[in-house]
Amino acid sequence: KKDSIIFTDGLNPILKIFDYKGKEIGQIKLDIPDRGKVETKDLDKWREYYKDMFSDSPQDREWFKTFGKVLDEYKTSIYSQKPCIENLWITPDGNILIKCPPDENKNSEYRLFDEKGKLLSKTLSDATLITISRKFIFLEKTDSEENTLIYCYNRKKSESEDLLSSSKISD
Prior knowledge:
By secondary structure, this protein is of the alpha+beta class. It is 19% helix and 33% strand. The protein has helices at 40-53, 58-67, 159-166, and strands at residues 4-7, 14-19, 24-29, 87-90, 96-100, 108-113, 119-125, 128-132, 136-142, 148-154.
């Protein structure tokens, strides 16, 4: 709402609401899946992600040789839990949209809640939501040739119904 900020560290399903002076004025408990404990395989994926990210150009590879070695020093995570919230948006209608981290198939779950935390809709998508505006939903997807595609859908119904219909895009 006006004159407040929603905060989450992404590690638990409780959103905290603060006024502009930093005083906590409320909480919203969301029904989102627990992601579980961080395991060795999660750290291995994290390392591979950054190694891949810095393998594209000779400059990146040189940077990684010099500074990337620190990744191998991490034997345990600084967090015991995996995040359960990857992104959070407040929609034009004042709803709360949560992106849960991707599953093993690289599908992300989006859940739309009203301002009290009641679930309005949820959907799985292999596309990445960019934003919801009053008139459009913007999504990003990578095709089979690794090209980035941006989809723009006209909003036709409620945020909940439009979110569900936009998750059915195909290449």
